[in-house]
């Protein structure tokens, strides 16, 4: 199920504006890769290029290659809508469908994928996904209540349940804990740890400790200068990035000297 991702010479544009330049990296399967770097260096833009969400913005485009287990993501025959279904994404702010029940929130993606879902199969998906997102025990007695009635941390876990319900190959997370308190953050981090045995996870985070805690590899992005595009400075084992990075600018960033 989990897939590795090979990115080569990827340039990412908003119209004429080159936001991210020349990224090449290999993101290993069944592992967590953290993307770090100062504001505006293109972490979210890069993340969205991995499931073709970037192109949703008018005029936005990429050139270069993204290959997921041998399949080129930007090949002409690939349907971007299908890609977005297969590569799950969790955003900064939990965004459950507010009036939809917890049960239906989990199934939202599966209902799009399968025309008719039998009650028994639907129940199974809901329980498995909520268990996978570490939320089952907290909500099993109120599955018919609206998603908006949950706490922020529970809502974020509900969004993760919704993302994993379709059994994606890859899970992209854009600062999934930035709107959460420390206890909910810790629950999500534990969950990320559990999920990585099944999924390839890429997470954008501003929190250095979080990158150090949850990821195997870390990619440090930076701007080459004001008005210049973001680029990948260094990707290495997280252990190495936080103890003995190859690049002085990585060292400066992680030690809090800029960014
Ligand atoms: N919809 C958009 N249209 C035009 N430019 C955009 C758009 N979204 C982002 N950008 C620009 O692309 C560059 C990279 O932005 P991006 O949000 O990817 O950076 P980031 O590293 O994720 O930042 P942050 O850490 O602040 O979230 C910035 O110069 C930003 O202004």
TrEMBL record:
- The organism's taxonomic lineage, starting at the top: Bacteria, Bacillati, Actinomycetota, Actinomycetes, Propionibacteriales
Its protein name is: Phosphate ABC transporter ATP-binding protein PstB
Specify the superkingdom: Bacteria
Q: Which gene encodes it?
A: pstB
The record places domain ABC transporter at: 5-248
Q: Which UniProt keywords apply?
A: ATP-binding, DNA-binding, Nucleotide-binding, Translocase, Transport
Any one GO MF term held by the record is: ATP binding
- Identify the species of origin: Nocardioides jiangsuensis
Asked if the Swiss-Prot or TrEMBL record annotates the protein with the keyword Magnesium, the reply is: no
Q: Where are the transmembrane segments?
A: none
Q: Which NCBIfam families match?
A: 3a0107s01c2
């Amino acid at each position: 199920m989990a897939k590795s991702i090979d990115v080569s010479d990827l340039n990412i544009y908003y119209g004429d504006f080159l936001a991210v330049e020349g990224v090449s990296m290999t993101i290993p399967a069944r592992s967590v890769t953290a993307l770090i770097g100062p504001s505006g260096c293109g972490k979210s833009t890069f993340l969205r290029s991995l499931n073709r969400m970037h192109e949703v913005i008018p005029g936005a485009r990429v050139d270069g290659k993204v290959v997921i287990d041998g399949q080129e993501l930007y090949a002409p025959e690939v349907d971007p809508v299908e890609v977005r279904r297969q590569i799950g994404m969790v955003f900064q702010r939990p965004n459950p469908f507010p009036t939809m029940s917890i049960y239906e929130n989990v199934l939202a993606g599966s209902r799009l994928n399968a025309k008719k879902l039998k009650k028994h199969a639907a129940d199974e998906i809901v329980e498995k996904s909520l268990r996978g997102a570490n939320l089952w025990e907290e909500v099993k007695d109120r599955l018919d209540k609206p998603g908006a009635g949950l706490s922020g941390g529970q809502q974020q876990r509900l969004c993760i349940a919704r993302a994993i319900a379709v059994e994606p190959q890859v899970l992209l997370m854009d600062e999934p804990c930035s709107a959460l308190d420390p206890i909910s953050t810790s629950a999500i981090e534990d969950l990320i740890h559990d999920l990585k045995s099944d999924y390839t996870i890429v997470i954008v985070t501003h929190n250095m400790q979080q990158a150090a805690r949850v990821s195997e590899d870390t990619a440090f992005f930076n701007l080459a200068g004001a008005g210049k595009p973001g680029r990948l400075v260094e990707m290495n084992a997280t252990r190495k990035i936080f103890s003995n990075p190859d690049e002085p600018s990585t060292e400066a960033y992680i030690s809090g000297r800029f960014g």
